[in-house]
Amino acid sequence: MIGEKIKSLLISSEGALVKPAEEVAVVGLKNRLNHALLILTSDKYAVVPVLDDESKMCGLISMPTIFQAIMNIEDVEFEKLGEIEVREVMDTDYPVVKEDFELEEVLHALVNHAFITVVDDDNYFKGIITRSEILKGTNRIAHEFEKLYDVREKTQEKLNRDEEVKKESVLK
C-alpha cells in the first residue's frame, strides 16, 4: 500500500494525474489508417486511443500496427492506408483503469506502458494517465520529501517490532 504522504507528493493536486479526454488525441473506430497516421505524426505520438461513435474505449492504434497492416514480404503497400479501417488492425489488449483507480495499480501498469486509459463504469473514455506525470511526481518526492518530513532511519530493533505487529494484525 502506498502511504498517504508519498501519494500526496506524487499527485500534486487532486485530479491532476488524469489528462482529460478533451485534451487527448484520439481516432475513431471507423477512421482509415491514413487518418490515424496523420494524427500520430502531426501530434508526435507513438500510440493513441481508438473510440467508437459514443466515445467508448475500443482499443489503441500505433505506428507499428499501421505499418504491419500495409507491409508484405516484398513491399510496403501505401495505397492500403486509405482502404483499411482502424478497427480492423487496432490493439484490443491495453491497460485500462476505472475512474476510482488505485494508484498502485496504475504504477504497475505504467512500468510497461507509456499511458493508461481511464474509463467510467460504462466504458466511456475519460482520459489517460501518463508515465511522464508519474515521473514528475517522483521527481517532486525526490526533491521535497526530506524538506517536508523529518526522516530518520529505523533501527533493526524497531524494524523487527514493526514486522511482529504486522504479523499479529494479519492473524486477527
TrEMBL record:
InterPro entries: CBS_CbpB (IPR048125), CBS_dom (IPR000644), CBS_dom_sf (IPR046342), Diverse_CBS-Domain (IPR051257)
Pfam family, one: CBS
Keyword entries, A-Z: CBS domain
CDD domains in UniProt: CBS_pair_bac (cd04643)
Domain CBS: 23-71, 86-136
Matches recorded under PANTHER family: CBS DOMAIN-CONTAINING PROTEIN CBSX3, MITOCHONDRIAL (PTHR43080), CYCLIC DI-AMP RECEPTOR B (PTHR43080:SF30)
This protein's name: CBS domain-containing protein
Source organism of the structure: Alkalibacterium thalassium
Organismal lineage: Bacteria, Bacillati, Bacillota, Bacilli, Lactobacillales
